[in-house]
Design a protein that fits this description.
Chain A: Belongs to the ABC transporter superfamily. Chain A: InterPro entries: AAA+_ATPase, ABC_transporter-like_ATP-bd, ABC_transporter-like_CS, ACT-like_dom_sf, MetN_ABC, MetN_ABC_transporter-like, NIL_domain, P-loop_NTPase. The complex is a heterodimer of chains A (351) and B (224). Chain A has two domains: 245 residues, 3-Layer(aba) Sandwich (Rossmann fold); 92 residues, 2-Layer Sandwich (Alpha-Beta Plaits). Helix content of chain A is 34%, strand content 29%. Chain A contains twelve helices and 14 strands. In chain A, helix 3 runs parallel beside helix 5, helix 4 packs across helix 5 and helix 11 packs across helix 12. The mean pLDDT of chain B is 92. The chains are: A alpha/beta (351), B mainly alpha (224). The interface between A and B is medium-sized, with 30 and 26 residues.
């Protein structure tokens, strides 16, 4: 898949929760294969109940798979004993949606907790915790209790705590889902920073495509316990294949048309109708003057209905919805011209 | 109040108060030493929990329930042989400590179980993710996080013990209850009875206030 070695590897992972009174056995994950390359930020997106939480908990052994293997940094997590697992968990940091900070410990003492658990001396704890609080921008809050911190500050403590044992892998369990958009961006920026500065491999789960768009190099789409689509974030955004992926993207990339417009949309061509065309601009061509070129070359009028230019995983990305003359011959030459310039098109319907 | 009582009665009252405090303090202390680990075990040993042992949890739960459902006055009488074994006698202040402790331990165990169950399971998961052993989770997460609730639980236990300690007076234990029964009731001295009740009220108020104060100081959740 990529040239860098995988730090986390799911190999044919299945997870079934045993039957309880009232319900039968529940299959949470089936045949999951996924590699997280070293130093990458990989996002797993899915709706609630898709199996995301189970997936991420397999990495540090909080859940055990029913079948298959999970290999982290060369170690088969699924084969470890409880004490071996405890050792392995020290090189896997985890941050949580609801922060999970100890209410009766200050920011400093919360960050120190994993080191105390690992049996590190008080002097070394101090030497490690202080720079971490600096790193996450909370040096002035070291003696504050969680109740005195904002949500974003709590998550910064959570991140510092996850980094305390100098892990190679960071797991992020919906780390920004309880935060407002502004704070979410700050926390995501912090995740990018620790990923770059500490060469940390990050696996994050989320239900928000905006999070994926902002930080993930690669994305896997989880639906009904299976990975239905996986690849470079930019590729997935530019050419989503699976309906679930498309529906996640629709909120973000201007793929949804205004309701008044959708109501008028017909699926078949009637003489004199205009075709509605979605054009996706990607990569280096995103800023080319495509429409004016097509308009000039073919001598037609192009009416822009909706347009959005964005930046996904650092690459420019645009979606424009236009209406053009709908007769099949003109339409196919427009499509050929646009695609000839390296852009994807899709006929949405006719008006 | 002391002015209107004869000096001899005042001396008796002070002596009885000391005896009550002594019985309650020792019973509460030993009751906690026994009840704390039982409470921790009850809170962590159901299926899928840290020290999962559902059968032991169930059996211990039954024993605790049996001890708690026995009326105290019956418990006192029922365990007289045991009291003799431990204290060498079944009469007096020292002997009274035995049934008080036997009643306090399961009560404290249940209170501590409830306090620990209040701790957010997310914290346990976070500690597991850090590589903490079950014992470390108890020591570094469950007990410290439950401490304000445990403080209130022990306050409640001490208040209940003050009440129970008055009852052991009925079977020859010392203390305020004994004084109230022998002088206030049997010799019909309502002023002594009133004095005993007032001292008990003051004791309970004092214990509750101290407990509330400590729990507030320990609780860091409402600082925003």
């Amino acid at each position: 898949m990529t040239d860098t070695p995988a730090v986390i590897r799911f190999e044919g992972v299945e997870k079934t929760f045993p039957a309880r009174s009232g319900t039968g056995a529940v299959s949470a994950l089936s045949n999951v294969n996924l590699s997280v390359p070293e130093g990458a930020i990989v996002g797993v997106i899915g709706r609630s109940g898709a199996g995301k939480s189970t997936l991420i908990r397999l990495v540090n052994g909080l859940e055990r798979p029913t079948a298959g293997r999970v290999v982290v940094d060369g170690t088969d997590i699924t084969a470890l004993s409880e004490s071996g697992l405890r050792e392995a968990r020290r090189s896997i940091g985890m941050v949580f949606q609801h922060f999970n900070l100890l209410a009766r410990r200050t920011a400093y003492d919360n960050v120190a907790l994993p080191l105390e658990i690992a049996g590190v001396s008080a002097r070394e704890i101090k030497a490690r915790v202080e720079p971490l609080l600096d790193l996450v921008g909370l040096a002035d809050k070291r003696n504050r209790y969680p109740a005195e911190l904002s949500g974003g500050q709590k998550q910064r403590v959570g991140i510092a705590r996850a980094l305390a044992t100098q892990p190679r892998v960071l797991l992020s369990d919906e780390a920004t889902s309880a935060l407002d958009p502004e704070t979410t961006n700050q926390i995501l920026a912090l995740l990018r920073k620790v990923n770059a500065e500490l060469k940390l491999t990050v696996l994050l789960i989320t239900h928000e495509m905006a999070v994926i768009k902002s930080v993930a190099d690669r994305v896997a789409v989880l639906d009904g316990g299976q990975i239905v689509e996986e690849g470079r974030t930019f590729e997935i955004f530019a050419r989503p294949q699976h309906p679930t992926t498309r529906s996640f993207l629709s909120a973000l990339t201007g793929a949804t048309l205004p309701a008044y417009f959708v109501d008028r949309l017909k699926s078949d061509y009637a003489p004199g109708a205009q075709a509605v065309l979605r054009i996706v601009f990607t990569g280096t061509h995103a800023t080319d003057p495509v429409l004016s070129r097509v308009s000039r070359d073919l001598g037609i009028d192009i009416n822009i209905i909706q347009a959005q230019v964005d930046d996904i995983a650092g690459e420019p990305f645009g979606v424009i919805v236009v209406s053009v003359p709908g007769d099949p011959q003109t339409l196919s030459s427009i499509v050929a011209s646009v695609e000839g310039q390296g852009h994807a098109t899709e006929v949405v319907g006719y008006v | 109040m002391f002015d209107i009582l004869p000096p001899a009665i005042v001396d008796l009252l002070i002596e009885a108060t000391r005896a009550t405090l002594y019985m309650v303090a020792i019973a509460a202390f030993i009751g906690t030493v026994i009840g704390l680990p039982i409470g921790v075990f009850l809170a962590t040993s159901r299926k899928g929990e840290l020290f999962a042992a559902p059968l032991a949890n169930h059996i211990l739960g039954l024993i605790v329930n049996a001890a708690r459902s026995t009326p105290f006055i019956i418990l006192v009488v029922a365990i007289i042989p045991f009291t003799r074994l431990i204290a060498g006698t079944s009469i007096g202040t020292n002997a009274a400590i035995v049934p008080l402790t036997v009643a306090a331990a399961p009560f404290i165990a249940r209170l501590i179980e409830a306090a620990i169950r209040e701790v957010d399971q997310g914290l346990v998961e976070a500690a597991r993710a850090m590589g903490a052993s079950p014992l470390q989770i108890v020591r570094k997460v469950l007990l410290p996080e439950a401490l304000p609730a445990i403080t209130l639980a022990l306050t409640l236990a001490v208040v209940s013990l003050i009440g129970y300690s008055a009852m052991v007076g009925a079977v020859g234990g010392g203390g305020l209850g004994d004084l109230g029964i022998r002088f206030g009731y049997q010799r019909f001295m309502p002023d002594v009875m009133l004095a005993v009740v007032i001292v008990l009220i003051v004791l309970v108020q004092g214990v509750q206030s101290i407990g509330d104060f400590l729990a507030r100081r320990l609780d860091k959740r409402n600082r925003g």
